[in-house]
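Feature request, filed as a ticket because there's no other form

It would be nice if the structure record came with a short human-readable summary line next to the tokens. Right now we just get the raw output. Example of a typical job, pasted below so the devs can see what we mean:
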Amino acid sequence: MTIKVERPVQLHPLIRRITANNPGIFTGPGTNTYVLGKQALTIIDPGPNLGEHQEAILAIPGEIEQIIVTHTHPDHSPGAASLKKKLKVPVYGILPANPHDQDLSFEPSATLTNQQIINGDGFDLRVICTPGHASNHVCLLMTPGGVLFSGDHIMNGSTVVIRPPDGDMRDYINSLVQLDKYGIETIAPGHGTTLDDPKEAINWIIQHRLNRERKVLKILREAGCGTAKSLVSKVYDDVNLSLHSIAVWSLEAHLIKLTNDGVIAHNNGIYSI
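Raw output as currently delivered:
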């Protein structure tokens, strides 16, 4: 399905999606902003601070009463500051633990907590803390409907980049395992279209990451030792060479996890069995 940017798409009687016009390697067709409710509206991930995108959000009939941010990467949260200033509404999220590659303009009115319930117009949202892609990442599970707003924890069309030091592979896999315990009917990701078989999607990602981890160990045994940069071409030989400069971040995350698990050793950037 082709996504048309800056046009509201009705996904559910209480859910509309607006995709920002910021396509790219990390964003796919663009960042998805979700507008929930009929009259009193809740915004999830207002996206980049683009005038066209802000106008598309404000054009939705109803009154925006709150804004929620899944995490503070610069394609998801910068729009919150200008909307908060313009509308005088509360913004909810978690401040970044690490300033690297984060939206430093983000100032939440209140900090989200795990299992917190946020009330909306005809629905509730359960906050599920899901660190991994970012240390301050949360997913939001809507009831009724069982729709999981997954931010960048789960995307449609590509796997998620885990970039240390804020990204953490062990946290990411553990968060996926925790999500699999909820009654999720549909995943509404931060990028791409909805995923209608959430259990299959979650389990596939877990197995994909664990298979990659096994491949890291295999290559490292064969090499004897190496750095993330020296190993990336063999560990990610199934990925286009042009993406290896990005894949090396996730490889580093795997190597850090294996070191912390006591499986491999690390000394001055060199990893060994």
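Something like this underneath would help us a lot:
The mean pLDDT is 96.
The longest helix spans residues 198-223.
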